[in-house]
Write a structure and sequence with these properties.
The structure is a single chain. 35% of the residues lie in helices and 24% in strands. By secondary structure, the protein is α+β, with helices and mostly antiparallel strands. Strands 3, 4, 5, 6, 7, 8, 16, 17 and 18 form a 9-stranded mixed beta sheet that branches. β3 (42-45) and β4 (51-55) form a beta hairpin. α10 (320-333) crosses α12. The chain binds zinc ion. Residues 68, 79-80, 113, 177, 346 line the site of zinc ion.
């Protein structure tokens, strides 16, 4: 883990800067390729930049394990890399103990999971959910295109479409990952058995009122866009109580008031709303209820309201069988655990489309992730690896 963390490390803030297709990302990919080969894995890089290493019988469908090697800017050392290094450790132990395999185990270090270009390129390529149109138009926030970034690493973007795996060639996928949230630490549990990845929708909302002089406009004659936004923020708890579940989340993450001057009544409030749940019906109910609340609030404050849905991703369920295997394995090892959804997106969500998929979480200290002080205790890392290894072995005989 520490060796991999050298790629993209910056002393100034102690963060990892290893975004997809950067020099640091490419060095890390060469490093992992080298380690896969030294372990005797059949290793190749596919057209999307995923590094794949296979161990065991080569003519049978494989059990896939892995996660991503790229990071967000100023990220931590565990996010993604844990799942790759743990996979390599599992294969080393299987080799050392000469455990026979019915199905090969293939470790995949996926590419560009953190969305520099707005998707999860590696996992989407493997699951066949990429389109030529998206590949040709994807850009990062600086305007560099995905095509250019891939070409700079010697990859032809068309080849990403050929990285697709046939469901018949894959038996299952398991990803070990840090939780990136505070739940396991708060409940003093070691292992999270992930039930699925929450669906998520993102709206851009605009309240339009009237900008007025903050001294001369009487309180009862204003069309104050911020007051509408504030009322809506207060409605969120009620909306979840009435229409949501304990897995529902509604977040206003960005607010822009115009004209944005201390002595002017804000005539316009632009803000984002992101909603999540494990059930698509609940997501629809939450969205409906938000729409009604926004419209009632707009009337009350003499505002116009507009919204634009930027994205809607459906929830993805993990395989009941793989979850059972992880749960039984965790019980046998005597570790504490709980079932939980993943609020964050992961490579695993795309694998659910082609194969039985499971995820294992270990606790994140303080719930911190996507930051230089992201940390997980080594004792938990070890337990996570044990659950991964023993689940892999149990899957060998139960698939
Ligand atoms: Zn991750």
């Amino acid at each position: 883990m520490y060796e991999l963390a050298k790629f993209g490390y910056r002393e100034s803030d102690k963060g990892i800067y290893r975004q997809g297709f950067t020099e640091a990302d490419w060095q890390a990919r060469h490093w992992i390729t080298d380690h896969f080969q030294r372990c005797g894995l059949h290793t190749h890089m596919d057209g999307a930049g995923n590094v794949c290493g296979r161990y065991g019988p080569q003519d049978k469908p494989a059990i896939l394990i892995g996660s991503h090697l790229d990071s967000v800017p100023a990220g931590g050392i565990f996010d993604g890399t844990l799942g790759v290094i743990a996979g390599l450790e599992c294969v080393r132990i299987i080799q050392e103990q000469d455990i026979p395999l019915q199905y090969p185990i293939e470790i995949i270090a996926t590419s560009e999971e953190e969305g520099r270009f707005g998707g999860m390129l590696g996992a989407q390529a493997l699951s066949g959910s990429l389109t030529l149109d998206w590949l040709e138009n994807a850009k990062d926030p600086t305007g560099e295109t995905l095509k250019q970034a891939m070409a700079a690493r010697g990859l032809d973007y068309h080849e990403a479409l050929h990285a697709k795996r046939n469901p018949e060639d894959v038996k299952a996928f398991i990803e070990l990952h840090i939780e990136q949230g505070p739940v396991l630490e708060a409940s003093k549990k070691t292992i999270g058995v992930v039930e699925g990845i929450s669906g998520v929708f993102k709206w851009l909302i605009k309240f339009l009122g009237k900008a007025d002089h903050a001294g001369t406009a009487p309180m009862d004659l204003r069309s104050d866009a911020f007051m509408g936004l504030a009322d809506f923020a207060h409605e969120i708890k009620r909306i979840i109580d009435e229409n949501g579940t304990d897995k529902s989340r509604l977040t206003i993450g960005r607010v822009d008031l115009k004209p944005g001057y201390a002595h002017t009544v804000p005539g316009e409030a632009d803000f984002t709303l992101v909603g999540r749940d494990m059930s698509e019906q609940v997501m629809r109910d939450l969205a409906d209820s938000c729409r009604k609340a926004l419209s009632a609030i707009a009337r009350r404050h003499r505002l116009m309201f507009e919204y634009e849905q930027m994205s809607w991703l459906e929830p993805k369920s993990c395989s009941q069988h793989v979850m059972d295997v992880i749960e039984q394995t965790t019980q046998e090892l005597g570790y504490s655990y709980q079932l939980m959804p993943s609020g964050a997106g992961h490579d695993a969500q795309f694998f659910t489309d082609i194969t039985p998929t499971g995820m294992i979480f270990i606790p994140s200290v303080g719930g911190v992730s996507h930051a230089p002080d992201e940390w997980s205790h080594w004792v938990d890392v070890e337990k996570g690896c044990n659950v991964l290894l023993n689940s892999l072995l149990r899957l060998q005989t139960t698939l």
